[in-house]
Amino acid sequence: MTAPHRPAPVPLFLCSSVPPLSRLRVLEYSTVSRPRRIAPVALLIVSALTLVGCGSDGEAPEPPAAADTATERQTPEPDDDPPAGASTSTEDDTSLVDFLRSAHVDDALVNRLGEVGDVNGYGLGEGVATSLEDRRRLAVAQVDTCRDVAVGHRTWEGIRASDVSAGATEEQASAMADFLREEFCPDVAPYKEAPLPKQSLGGPEEDAQGGRGLASPVSWWDTRYRRVSWSEECAAQTGQPLGDPVAYRLSDDAVVCATVPPAEQWKKHLINVDVVFAEPVGEERARNAALALLPIDAVAEDESEGTNPDWSYLEGGCLNVNIQSQQLEDVVAALEKDAEPWAHAVYYSDGATADGAVGPYTGKVKQVSLSTGRNEPTGSGDLAC
């Protein structure tokens, strides 16, 4: 199975010609790809509203939202009672309410965001009123935007440019970014990380299936590597997680950043991980770090440089390395029926956001994103970062 490493993120801008109901959907965690820029809602992964370019019947590629902040500011505790008029009749709606409540975002702020979104096309269409649930979905994505900016993972300039690339006008993108920066984000509480667990290290070098990190269970990781603060070590580099974030000290100058997938089929196994170095390293060091997290028979087979997709406003590049491992197929087969004997590592010289690689690939590596499956070029023949 081909595993496109960084699929286009979930856009927030819509045009008035979009059929409303087809634009709302719940996205489950992908099996082998990395849908990293979809807004997380507890164990439910909820998309914002999907983009269709103005004047076009076809759907455009999907652009994002994501991250967290390490230092909590003083914020009043939210009321324990549901907001007046809030509907909690469905699991989806309850998850949205719970997520927004944890971020200290009430329905009054949600509705203010929704009004700005309705006027500027971030909803069912420009000037078309959205429901409270629609607005909550948008608010969930924008909470992640706020946290991304707060930790330095993204910038307001980048947010505006990303929205323009998704179909918004300069005026619409600026109106939304200004509202977020001046009114919405100041009320958003930082991501609150769970306390680090107590650990007993010295566990086996391989898990029960022969894995050495990728697709291995969290319980194995907890016996092999010391946990560190995800907020401090990973948030600014990798952005808001899809599930519960974890971080491990791999070496003195490298950490592993990952999330525990919400999907039941993955049973708390880390199927995608990022190795983040304190300072950029050479390709050999990056390759060794990736191989160390794969079964002992893993061999780097082929590599190719990639560029950001056409919709991205960033001019960035990366290097993809496909890695073969028969044992990995057995490891993944215990979790996924379409397992294959491949993994891929994507090297970034600076890092990556929802919009692709942050800068050009220089031969030095700051971040390695390691995933199951082989990464293949798109239909155009280009490999997307």
Order of helices and strands: EEHHHHHEHEHHEEEEHEEHEEEE
The helix/strand class is alpha+beta
What number is the mean pLDDT?
79
Whole-number tally of structural domains: 2
Query: How many β-strands, per DSSP?
Result: 14
User: What best-fitting shape do the alpha-carbon axes yield?
Assistant: globular
What gap, in angstroms, lies between the N and C termini?
Answer: 18 Å
Task: Count the DSSP helices.
Answer: 10
Record the strand order, biggest sheet.
Answer: 4-5-6-8-14-11-10-9
Percent helix, as a range, is: 25-40%
Largest sheet descriptor:
8 strands, antiparallel
Radius of gyration: 20 Å
Low-confidence stretches: 1-91
How much of the sequence lies in strands comes to: 15-25%
Write a brief caption for the model.
The chain is α+β, with helices and mostly antiparallel strands. It is 26% helix and 18% strand.
Question: Could you describe the 3D structure shown?
Answer:
Mean pLDDT is 79; it is low at 1-91. The protein has 385 residues and is α+β, with helices and mostly antiparallel strands. It starts with 39 loop residues before the first strand and ends in a 13-residue tail after the last strand. It has 2 domains: 21-187, no CATH class; 216-372, no CATH class. It contains 10 helices and 14 strands. The longest helix has 19 residues, at 132-150. The strands form 4 sheets. An 8-stranded antiparallel beta sheet has the order 4-5-6-8-14-11-10-9. It has a two-stranded antiparallel sheet with strand order 1-2. The protein has helices at 91-102, 107-120, 132-150, 156-165, 170-184, 218-224, 230-233, 235-238, 283-291, 326-333; strands spanning 40-41, 44-45, 216-217, 226-227, 244-251, 254-260, 269-270, 272-281, 299-307, 317-324, 342-348, 352-353, 356-357, 365-372. Strand 1 and strand 2 (44-45) form a beta hairpin. Helix content is 26%, strand content 18%.
